[in-house]
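Researcher: Let's continue the batch. This sequence belongs to Phospholipase/carboxylesterase/thioesterase domain-containing protein, and it's 208 residues. Same format as the previous ones, please.
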Amino acid sequence: MPGAFSRSEGERAGTHLLVMLHGYGTGEERMESLFATLPAGFTAAAPRGSLDVGDDVGWYLLDPGLRTEQGTVIAAASGVLAWLDGVLATGPFRSVSLFGFSQGMAMATMLLRLRPDGFRCVTGIGGFVPDVELLAVTEPLPVRVPYLWQRGTADHMIHPGAVQDTQEWLTANTALTRREFSDVGHVITPAMMVETDIFLREHVLDDG
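Model: Same format as before. Here are the structure tokens for Phospholipase/carboxylesterase/thioesterase domain-containing protein:
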């Protein structure tokens, strides 16, 4: 799985890994543009989705209601975990955290659901939690990982039902911090990255 990294392989040992997952119809370059906003001490890794979407990519097909076949979602997330295991072999890293925007937030949440003891914290922006009944039967998760959920009040890409379902799942399964930004649409803003910086410092750097 191709992707972008903020450090070369020889510079990663002893850093904290942040896996950054892009949205549907974009690519790893969108996450790469955020590398410079992260606190020192991190290695950022942005894999590229495997689903062709015109000239860009995504992680799995979505219908307008943000639904898809649950096996497809699990397969996509399992592919990222296999890629991640290869990255972890290039460390050793001090911890692993997740960051996702839009469909990337859905993917980050899926990774947490499949490997709940594998991540220090999660940041999700402008996304949602997929409805996957196969996993829901084993939830709530055994570990409540710190989760920062950020969204704009003018984000109409994620319909109100999905927002409500996401709120309910995150409340039941994570140590949730929610931030809303007035009149902000389906974007990542500088203010959101400031919140991400604070969150990562608190839950990763301050924890050692």
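Researcher: Any comment?
Model: The chain has a mean pLDDT of 93.
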